Amino acid sequence: MWVPAHVGIIRNEKVDKIAKKALKNCSNAKQVKHKAALILARGGSNGIPLKNIKMLAGVPLIVWVIRAARDSGVFDSVWVSTDHDEIERVAWAWGAKVHRRSPEVSKDSSSSLETIQEFSRIHPEVDVICNIQATSPCLHPWHLKKALEFITKEGCDSVFSVVRRHHFRWQEVKKDGQCTKALNLNPFHRPRRQDWPGELCENGSLYFATKELIEKGLLQGGKMKYYEMDPEYSVDIDVDIDWPIAEQRVLRYGYFGKDKPEVVRLQLCNVSGCSLTYISANGEEVVSINTREQAGIHMLKKEEVKVILIEKDTITKALADKLSETLGCPQEVEDKLKKVQELMEKEGMVLKDVLNILQFYAKQKYVCVCVCVFEFKYKHYILLLKKKAKSQMEQDRICRNTF
């Protein structure tokens, strides 16, 4: 546009400030080409055997962080570094790539840094590596997104997660007669919790570092920043006693995936899949079911799960009739898939509402839970699904001001 020489241009100071800030951010930002998430999961564990794939709230422990990393959408690749076949199988099944680590970095004495350096040498295309701790099941995608922005937008070389703790620390006494002393407080002026900001402690959930920093033998260095996580999301499972506590925390604060879990409302099952058949002395077949399996049905019904018995086998049909009468469960003999579709339409359900033994349920990418409703272990899992869904609903209503 042509402007006469005598016409002045009025500058907008507010616009200038915004422009300068944008230029500064651009100059600080790193041009990161490939960002990889790396989850270290060695097969050997001094505390819990194969801890990384032990079931926690219905899925293997490592799956919680694989799912968070994949759903964050900020990584070009998500890897699990392992030396164990079963962990490798789980990783592939849940959409992660596998770095089969060498024996040299699979020892009890091997450090995380050594394993990460090996991965970096094998994959030179990776510019930034995020080491995600497999034992942090309450990690969410938005934690990863926010932490990565310190590198991509502010030009940091390393970012790690911390949690704020309000613990008064005291010096350890190693000799008889030696007295202890306070390390982070004045006993004459003990602060109230609400008057003390606490201390920032690493929680181990995530460590971002550039390739250049890792090559120098560092995970933390250069231009560093921390990412503070709320205490409710800082869960680290080290010993077996942590497991039930962690499971309750995961049910409330864990990341369940992009699709919210739904409360299970319907259960279909074959009686023949859970009964035992005996041959009597006169050659007749006798069918029986353990009383604890009947108790499982009672517990499901108490939780408002509708149970329908399906049986075509002539011998087992008599048992199904008796169970239907005793437990108050309706009985159907038609094709299971057809019956599911009819019930879904009648009850206004979708597949996430329905728990059944058909393979099509798994093909819809929802967990195929049940082989048989009467199996005691599956009954607990079905109830766990309900607890997860209710916990997620409750989590949506949590007010941050209550913490």
UniProtKB/TrEMBL annotation:
Enzyme Commission no:
2.7.7.43
Q: What residues does the RNase H type-1 domain cover?
A: 1-24
GO terms of molecular function: N-acylneuraminate cytidylyltransferase activity; nucleic acid binding; RNA-DNA hybrid ribonuclease activity
SUPFAM superfamilies, from UniProt?
A: Nucleotide-diphospho-sugar transferases
Does the keyword Cell membrane feature in the UniProt annotation?
A: no
Q: What metabolic or biological pathway is this protein involved in?
A: Amino-sugar metabolism; N-acetylneuraminate metabolism
- Classification lineage: Eukaryota, Metazoa, Chordata, Craniata, Vertebrata
Its signal peptide is none
Q: Name one GO biological process term.
A: N-acetylneuraminate metabolic process
The catalytic activity, as recorded, is: an N-acylneuraminate + CTP = a CMP-N-acyl-beta-neuraminate + diphosphate
Q: Which family does it belong to?
A: Belongs to the CMP-NeuNAc synthase family.
Q: Which UniProt keywords apply?
A: Nucleotidyltransferase, Transferase
Q: What is this protein called?
A: N-acylneuraminate cytidylyltransferase
Q: Which InterPro entries match?
A: CMP-NeuNAc_synthase, Cytidylyl_trans, HAD_sf, Nucleotide-diphossugar_trans, RNaseH_domain
Entry-linked PROSITE patterns: RNASE_H_1
Top enzyme class of this protein? transferase
Q: What Pfam families does UniProt report for this protein, alphabetically?
A: CTP_transf_3
